[in-house]
Fold this sequence. Notes:
Elements: H1 4-21, H2 30-40, H3 43-50, H4 58-64, H5 72-92, E1 96-100, E2 105-109, H6 125-138, H7 143-149
Antiparallel strand pairs: 1-2
Helix pairs in contact: 1-5, 1-6, 2-5, 2-6, 3-6
Amino acid sequence: MHNSALACLLLSSFAKEYQRSTANTRHPAFEKLLLVLPFVWHGPSRRGIARRNFDTALHIVLSDEPRILEGLAARVSAHAPVACQGLNIACGTGLLVKRSNGESVEFAFEQAHWPRGSSPSSIPNDMSGTVLRLANWFKDYTSADLFAMLGLI
């Protein structure tokens, strides 16, 4: 089911893992968050990513799994509204904090732990695995580089 509450948990999980993998020195930009749901909610992408080793480079995964990029631009457009709704819920509930750094908008997970009743433990393993791997890979690229690599610009 593709709903804004699930989007909230997925995007918050992504932000938390992104921060953890950068030793809390960076937070994901809005543009990177827009890319999460099109991978997580697309079955072939999710299956191709969730089983991968964290040490496998993103460009290798994209080369090995060409279906990941099929229709990606359309999926990004289709999932953008629910991603925005999910981010609004995450900010409204205090899971994420929106920050502007002059050039871009970023979202920070500012909780020491998941607030009571909001743990993403009910998210299917393949979805949470995909989110963790995406955060690990996306941290190594600027938004512009990531969009170029994915053929979105």
